[in-house]
Design brief:
Length: about 150
């Protein structure tokens, strides 16, 4: 896996989960897209399912280059969950929190090691009428030279 694949990796885990997949496809944040487009997509998803899941861009931490040119490090990625307080949805509240963490830290097939959850998220109630939570994860990467 490369740094560029981390968002898609988490999106795939979330979409494949029986309960989370029903909440819609996670939005993969792109800082180069029109912010109004992203805002509209989030609002549409909240209206449709009561939940919007957005995956932030991944960043590399603790990187070191090995003798063979492989870069070894940890990708940090945050999963943001906007949860409507007006529209009923399942899972919700603590069940949604637990499901996100369990799904994103699931042991993948193959040689990829699972992500580690980093506790510390808080909840913020927004003016838009939803609760926003951020879940942070680190996933080990070994990036081979091209």
């Amino acid at each position: 896996m490369t740094l560029d694949n981390v968002q898609a990796y988490f999106a795939g885990l979330i979409t494949a989960d029986a309960q989370l997949g029903l909440l819609g496809t996670p939005i993969q944040f792109d800082p180069y897209k029109d912010p109004e487009e992203a805002k509209s997509a989030i609002a549409d998803q909240l209206r449709a399912t009561g939940v919007c899941i957005e995956i932030e861009e991944a960043e590399l931490y603790n990187a070191e280059t090995l003798l063979d040119g492989t870069t070894k490090g940890d990708a940090h990625c945050s999963v943001l969950v906007a949860e409507s307080v007006l529209k009923a949805h399942t899972p919700n509240r603590s069940a949604l929190r637990t499901r996100i963490i369990q799904t994103c830290t699931k042991r993948p097939s193959g040689t990829q090691k699972p992500a580690r959850y980093v506790p510390g998220e808080g909840a913020v109630r927004t003016e838009g009428g939803y609760v926003l939570r951020m879940y942070s994860f680190f996933i080990p990467l070994n990036i081979k030279p091209a």
